[in-house]
Amino acid sequence: MRGVAVVVMVIGHSVDSVLSLDARSTEAFRMYDAVRGFTAPIFLFVAGFAFIVVTERRWNEYHAFSRPLRSRLLKVLLLLTVGYVLHLPFLSFNKLLHGTKPEEYALLFQVDVLHCVAVSIVILQVLVLLSKTPRIFGLITLKTTAIIVLATPLVWTVDLARVIGPVLAPYFSQKSLSIFPIFPFSGFMLSGGALGHFFLVAWRNGREKEFFGGIITLALMVGACGVLFDLLPVSIYPPHDYWKVSPNFFLVRMSAVLLVTAGFFYLKKLPGIVEHPVLALGQASLLVYAVHLGVAYGSPLNIGLQQIIGKILPYYAAAGVSVVVLGGMVVLVYLSEYFRTHHEWPSRLIQAGFASTITYFFFTNPW
């Protein structure tokens, strides 16, 4: 599932960076964009599912400041660091302090999917620490998901930038420039954590088929509730954007995520020629995410397709570009894995050298 989400993500960003404005005005593009909107919920759901699968194997260790917990916290720090680095307007600490416009600071502090994943991991870890058993964790996580989803329309009405500042406010809503605030997007990751626990219970009892049969039923019920609740003549919330904050639309998207999850269970395997690169992309999702954004949109280190080509291509040419970018990401992942497994120390030296070089120029470039 994560690999397929990565494929859709790479194609989506690549197309977005070069597709003409005329092509975006068509009904076909609007349908495509609506389908693409489910990529992030699927990715976040899988991340939450993976979190609890890893955690339950070493439950007692994650209840203490152990090596696994320290490793997890370092991962959170890495995700946040990469998230902010990808939003740097330029590679100069001095200019960042003395020559940055307010709108450039807003872009720097924008909350993207990596920030959302990092904060959601922290929330899930806190819930683990508060739970004596995995079962309690599953129940508390479901309740926390409901709180986040139901509170979203209210949180979005408050201008939190005045209360907690422009750095933290984007984590809560799109009042400040933000793409994936924790309200409501953490709800997808937390629901993945909760359902991941109940899947493990079914798996240990040899009841996977019954579990996913129940998931399909749950998905249909959740989706129906999302539609029916929206048809009610009254609302407990002030006016809000249905497509971004409505708990009813969250239920509709959650229904789709659950159906996709069940679909992958019954699908079992893809053809080998497809499965291997998809699995590789899913396992290297952070690398692919960081690199493909630079390829599509550019970065302080390079110009991207958006600058080289511009948003001028018809849909078929944009699709061709996206296939080339996706192929490049597959090659990158295979090369990275090859050097990591066959030339571990040279690979680490290259990574360290690249990171230290970027850091050096960031702190020494005057402008």
Can you describe this structure?
By secondary structure, this protein is mainly α. The protein has one domain (2-364). Helices cover 75% and strands 0% of the residues. The protein is built from 19 helices and no strands. The protein has helices at 2-18, 21-24, 27-36, 39-57, 67-85, 93-98, 102-108, 113-130, 134-155, 161-164, 182-204, 208-231, 242-245, 247-267, 272-283, 285-297, 305-308, 315-342, 344-364. The longest helix is centred in the C-terminal third of the chain and has 28 residues, at 315-342. The chain is globular, with a radius of gyration of 21 Å.
How would you summarize what this structure contains?
This protein is mainly alpha-helical and 367 residues long. It is 75% helix and 0% strand. The protein is globular and about 55 Å long.
| Number of helices in the DSSP assignment | 19
Q: Can you tell me the residue ranges where pLDDT is under 50 for at least 5 consecutive residues? A: none
Structural class by sheet pairing and helices = mainly alpha
Number of domains: 1
Number of strands: 0
Helix content: over 70%
Tell the overall outline: globular
Rg estimate, integer Å: 21 Å
Task: Give a quick set of tags describing it.
mainly alpha, about 375 residues, 19 helices
Give the helices and strands, then pairings.
Layout lengths: L1 H17 L2 H4 L2 H10 L2 H19 L9 H19 L7 H6 L3 H7 L4 H18 L3 H22 L5 H4 L17 H23 L3 H24 L10 H4 L1 H21 L4 H12 L1 H13 L7 H4 L6 H28 L1 H21 L3
Helix pairs in contact: 1-4, 1-15, 1-16, 1-18, 4-8, 4-11, 5-8, 8-9, 8-11, 9-11, 11-12, 12-14, 15-18, 16-18, 18-19
